[in-house]
Amino acid sequence: MPSRRTIETAVALACRAPSLYNSQPWRWVLGSQDLSLFSDPDRILPATDAFGRQMVLSCGAALNHLRYAFASLRWTSVIDRLPHSQGRQCLATIGLAPAQDVSDTDDRMATAITRRRTERLPMDPPGRWDQTFAQVTELAAQSGTHLEDIGEHGRPALEAMSRRLSGLRRADPVYQAELRWWAGHSLYPEGIPAEALPAARHRTVAVEREFPPGNVTSDTGNEDDRAAILLLSTPSDSRLDWVRCGEALSAVLLACTDRGLATCTVTHLTESGAVRTALRELSDGDGLPQVLVRVGRSTRPAPTTAVSRRPLSEILFRE
Ligand SMILES: Cc1cc2nc3c(=O)[nH]c(=O)nc-3n(C[C@H](O)[C@H](O)[C@H](O)COP(=O)(O)O)c2cc1C
């Protein structure tokens, strides 16, 4: 096994992964032979994610971040997903072996982990998109996930669905209470601080979730979102699909970051059964829609500070 310090470094990098409302619903347990990843059901968001689908997706993203982090530290991860012996909350055990050789890509992806931020302002279109799209489609496929670009033909329908759903949710006090508990302030190293949310004077991007107003502004005055809109879908809706889709999400976000692009994960549209069905009809595949990702060029300088994460003492334990 790697030294304690190496493990702590890799787990800290893995926890830079995105998660629903920055809830960080994961726990890592270090054994003598391997490291295990558990979902933390105390961090489920009942009004937004009643079945824990996005909790598991978030953990899947952390799992792929961990693999890149260990690779950059010269360790190869051998991942066993949903091992039967460890109970329902155990999503993976990770065995580790010294790496024979390390690719330049692993190093670049680990660097992208520290640079990636969720960008919620409108974006300009991504440059050299064909190359990037081919790369991220291949990365998603490696995790058994279908990826497609639905921005061009689907944007008007997506915007209409999003407006309708946002209207319904404005009138849902339970959803609003949960959202406001997690977003718009920074009392704890979790949730989404005002520094990561668009200021009130910006119109919410039409396909984006409506958050309480924050402090983020852009001087360009550009309110038209021209980002590509990607949809990640899975063959079925099993826990394994969710873990693997989370891994695909991590790979897609980091590859785009590595290419200098801004990204935003968007999931409110897949939280409503009816909207999810409509999304499925918009899609060219027959998979189950899980996550949308906006990808484009940011219209402001990259934020220097990252959104906080919980300390290792709260998420990494010895067996
Ligand atoms: C499963 C999942 C769902 C998410 N849904 C949304 C969303 O609907 N809208 C949004 O702006 N961000 C969404 N995010 C991004 C998180 O809010 C973000 O990762 C978290 O606040 C941490 O910030 P960071 O990504 O800048 O590190 C989602 C992330 C995940 C993994």
TrEMBL record:
InterPro entries in the record: Nitroreductase-like, Nitroreductase/BluB
Highest taxon in the source lineage: Bacteria
Protein's UniProt name: NAD(P)H nitroreductase
Organism: Rhodococcus opacus (Nocardia opaca)
